[in-house]
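Q: Structure tokens for this one, please.
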Amino acid sequence: MIKWFRRKKKQEPGPEQDEQLREEEQLREEDQFWEEDRETEEAARPETPAEEEPPSAEQPEDEPVSEPEPEAEAKMEVEAPDELDEFPGAWDEEEPEEQEAEDETPNGRARKGGFFGRLRQRLNKTREKFVDRIDRLVLGKKEIDEELLDDLEEILITSDLGVKTTETLLQKVADKVRRRELSDPAKLREQIRDEIKAILSVDAPPLDYRADKPFVVMIIGVNGVGKTTTIGKLAHQLTRQGLRTMLAAGDTFRAAAIEQLSIWGERVGAPVVKQKSGSDPSAVIFDAMDAAVARDVDVMLMDTAGRMHTKVNLMEELKKIHRIANRKMAAAPHEVFLVLDASTGQNALSQARLFKEGIGITGLVLTKLDGTAKGGVIVAICDELKVPVRYIGIGESIEDLRPFDPDEFTSALF
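A: Here is the predicted structure, written as tokens:
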């Protein structure tokens, strides 16, 4: 019993041993706490390092990681057309038909292309001065009397239809009123429109540039009417029709006339026969006729000097050019086009008279109809001279020179 007690006492720790054991146990508990805390943090931490590494060289090529480049290319193909919109006029001359939409005349007939709409818009000033005044005149009137006809006469004369044409129109209206074929003032507008359409429909053979080869067209007119520009635009139309066209720079006196025609020739793809400034125009036409035959040209357009139509020397020079062309080819020139500026009003009629008497003209080209209220002069010229209008110009664009159609013109005007 005493031995057992001694062993027990020996085995039991003393105060110092108890403190040491408590410290060791506390250290073990702290170590265990921090170990469990680290394990908890590692379990909660996202496993990013391994996924952020770039794909290795052994990665297959068909995995999605390698596909962003085709998607970027497809996106560029979709956005490319938007970039072309920054240059809206880049393709205007090459694809004019695609920009034109179908239009409809007041008669309800569809017109292909937007030319009728542009023509109606460009004739707005002439319509306001002429047609709109007729509408206001007959508004509220119940019969056609002498007072109404007097007011109508004033409108026609001040709209540049001229005295002779005005008398002709009033006489036809008065005759129908006396025969009681026309009594409603509201129908007076339609009657005037039909009479003007009949005047503009001059009896003339159709224009056929394939009737002879080369088909020679002589372009005449005073300076400033747009003669050289008309030649360039007409050459553009003929070239697009498949006709081989040549230009002759016969205006050797006006400053930069040869250079201007040369630029048009390069623009429309037509060769230009020219000599130095101040040369004899007849010599230029002589060389041009030879070149047209040698190069198998379909149409040759001859530019001529302008100056003032009252100058005797101008008329004599034009007659000489006419003789030279006729000497080289029996039927040449096949057409003589007189270019007139519609904005000059009755002065254009005076020019037409003198040119017809001096050299003879077969067709008219009226330019600048878009910027004037004097477009009625076209009726006066056709009525007095009985010469057909072949082309009209209603703007500066290369497509704004169009063949003249009396029906289309009167529909757009009224």
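A few notes: Strands lie at 103-104, 110-111, 215-220, 245-249, 272-273, 299-303, 335-341, 363-367, 389-393, 401-403. The CA atoms of residues 93 and 397 lie 9 Å apart.
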